[in-house]
Amino acid sequence: MKTSMIALAFAAFATAGFAHASDAPAAATAGQSGAAQTQQWTANQTGAMQKTRADVRHELVQAQKDGQLAQLGSLYRGS
Questions:
Q1: Which domain holds residue 57?
Q2: Considering the domain boundaries, does residue 30 fall inside one?
Q3: Keywords in UniProt for this one (predicted)?
Q4: In a domain, 62, yes or no
Q5: Contact partners, residue 44, CB within 8 Å, separation at least 6
Q6: Which of 5, 16, 50, 56 stands 20 to 30 A from 29 (CA)?
Q7: How many domains is the chain partitioned into structurally?
């Protein structure tokens, strides 16, 4: 039973990997007017900001007040 589940999971991941790889842009040829551009991820492009310790503490208190932490705790406990 576990062997078939592992084989099915492997097949699903392999299929997803091939589908993701086929979405990559094709290299531009010399006859085309526009060249394919590739971008690398940098922290500045995503708008990610560093949080202070006070910011993280404030988010923790908010999560405790609105019940997010209790909900996550029950999810991971399995009950």
A1: 51-79
A2: no
A3: Signal
A4: yes
A5: none
A6: 16
A7: 1
